[in-house]
Amino acid sequence: MLPSQRQEFILRKIEGEGSVKSIELAREFEVTNETIRKDLEVLAEEKRVIRIHGGATRITDARHDMPLPARQSMNRFEKSVVARAAAQLIEPNDTIFMDASSTVLTMTDYLPQFPLTVLTNAHHVIVALGGRANCDLICTGGRYEERSRSYVGAMAEGAMKRFIIKWLFVGVDGLHHRLGASEVNPGQAVLKERLIPRAENVCVVCDSTKLEQKSPFIFGEISQFSVLVTDDRAAPGILELYESAGVRVIVAKLPREA
User: From which residue to which does any coiled coil extend (predicted)?
Assistant: First the structure.
């Protein structure tokens, strides 16, 4: 069977079932997982499917995240306090990755002035830090998403393979002590999932409204995270769930008038 024929069969299967798993497709077509992965990437590049961890889903089933300006307007004060606390983890000459979440973007206001290497897939991080002294700024490139104003896909994932990341700073749409960290955007979720094993430390930065919540696309287990930075509106009992899982929890205190 030609690749184009197999891809059409896969597309019809996705349209009928909503989503597919790579391992099941490989078994059905009697080919390797790598062959199916390439088929799905072709269909994704043609914008006929959305790639998700372990397979693909129908375009109409994808739950897209809110546009970046809308996300920035939500819980702005909490994000600012959390971002400031997270930035204090960084040391001179660190190589850090900053994702495309609105809370991580807020960290650009508080990055220390000493020398840093900043890797990112976020267009607005590039804009915020462009021209900054002592900052070696590196963008992943890749397929540009207007809503998240960031880069995703195979090119973005592959661009980071040669870097040793001291701190990976990620935002979440949901963080659950049992289910892990999740996103509404599948492209962002896959990129984060593939960066986590390459980072020495992974820090989740999120306001307390994201705790014990879940979104469609899981990108990391709790055991993979080094630090959680959140605000002091989080219930102590909830924070204990993460601490008992081995995560260092940093609570950023909000002024009483906030």
Answer: none
Q: What is the pTM of this model?
A: 0.73
Tell me the CA distances in angstroms from 50 to 61, 134, 218, 232, one per residue in order. Answer: 9, 38, 15, 37
DSSP assignment letter at 258: -
Q: What are the sequence ranges of the domains in the chain?
A: 3-61, 68-252
SS3 178: coil
Distance CA 99, CA 109 (A): 15
Residues 6+ apart with CB under 8 A from 46: none
Amino acid 57: pLDDT: 77
Confidence of residue 68 (pLDDT cuts 50, 70, 90): low
Question: What is the CATH code of the structural domain delimited by 68-252?
Answer: 3.40.50.1360
Are the C-beta atoms of residues 61 and 28 closer than 8 Å to each other?
Answer: no
> How far is it, in rounded angstroms, from Cα 37 to Cα 27?
13
